[in-house]
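Blinded run. Sample ID left blank on purpose so nobody reads anything into the name before looking at the predicted structure. Input follows.
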Amino acid sequence: MDSQDAITLLQGDHREAEELFEKFEDIKDKASAQEKFELAQKVCGALLIHMEIEEKIFYPQVRQRIGDDDLMNESVVEHAAAKDLIKQLGQLKADDPMFDAKMKVLSEQIQHHVEEEESEMFPKVRKANLDLQVLGAELLKGKTQMQEEQGLAPVAS
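Blinded prediction complete.
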């Protein structure tokens, strides 16, 4: 597997989530409840793993180096809000009228979060004195381990 820097890996996750949300939006009116549920499960699983590696590996190292606690704290709060919505989705059936609405709001929250990370946090990280290759390897290891624990096949990047 090619090594990639931490930001490239996280941006790859962001693109994957965007594609899954777009696919959900495209199929939600014509797909079966089962198909919608499976796609929602896929996007939520990927998001949970992504947030976990950011919170456990990426954010602690970044926080020490960029000196912007407000930005870092906001990211943690945004993750908590997304996790709460994911939990709510997990308690609904895909044919529940609120299911699509919760997926839409989750998509919008994630889109906002991604824009902030990519426009504000990542440029600061690039300027910080961090070995992004080493950090990328740590993130990939954590991501792969969680995917295996949850029985998910790693998504080819």
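Unblinding after everyone has recorded impressions. The first helix runs from residue 6 to 27.
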